[in-house]
Design brief:
This protein is mainly α and about 80 residues long. The protein is about 90% helix and about 0% strand. It has helices at about 5-20, 25-75.
Length: about 80
């Protein structure tokens, strides 16, 4: 993954100020920040859902394994 240094960031900021103008630049930054925040919220929500589902699957597997162990013990003990 490429690394971005301070010189590259400064270059992008200067170009953005020249293209957008000094009045529109802060507004654009707020919009970009808002979009990034929404994306992070969506991503964390998705991650919580996946984590919840995997916990449910793990619990189901544990229950099935426990039931199998009980059946094996009952079969052995007769």
């Amino acid at each position: 993954m490429p690394q971005i240094g301070w010189l590259e960031i400064l270059s992008v900021v200067i170009i953005a100020i020249l293209v957008l103008g000094p009045k529109e630049f802060p507004i654009a930054l707020k919009k970009i920040g808002s979009y990034i925040g929404k994306f992070k919220n969506t991503l964390s929500s998705f991650q919580r859902e996946v984590s919840s589902v995997t916990k449910d699957v793990d619990l189901d597997e544990k229950i099935v394994n426990k039931n199998n162990n009980i059946k094996e013990d009952l079969d052995k003990n007769g």
